[in-house]
Amino acid sequence: MSTSSTGATIWLTGLSGAGKSTITEALAPRLRAAGHRVDILDGDEVRQVLTADLGFSREDRITNVRRIGYVAEVLSRNDVLTLVPVIAPYAEARDSVRERHEKAGTPFVLIHVATSVEVCAERDVKGLYAKQKAGQMTGLTGVDDPYEEPTNADLRLDTAGRSLDESVDAVWAVLSARGLI
To answer: Where are the beta strands (DSSP E) in 61-165?
Structure first.
């Protein structure tokens, strides 16, 4: 078992409940078992520490994504496969992160976890869709706040009707094809 000498950022974007974190949590141990250095920058966890000062306005969401992107790029250029499950609703912010990686010569893979808002609302892992429907919150990405679907994703992955293993295998195939694993 050899250790990876190439880092990369594997960014999983999609709506709340799409399966970003679930895929990440299944992929990470598989990558580690194959000898790779792996870290995870989960959007919910990062919001508690690195971006706790930000709200959910368009500007704050863009700043949030850029900060996470900066940390991901630093880890990745230091030979870590950095998994980033973050909603990242705006193309401008995602494109900025990709450009930063390209300028640094650091591999960047964008995975669009393209599960429909209807399926995400059925899953409602965090209860956000129920709160929005009951009028207890506003600004839910994909419902009453925009989500700009990526047009430049390396993989478009709808998790509805697909097993977790199939989803992880699809991401694995993209990383393998790019020579990152």
So the answer is: 81-85, 108-113, 155-157
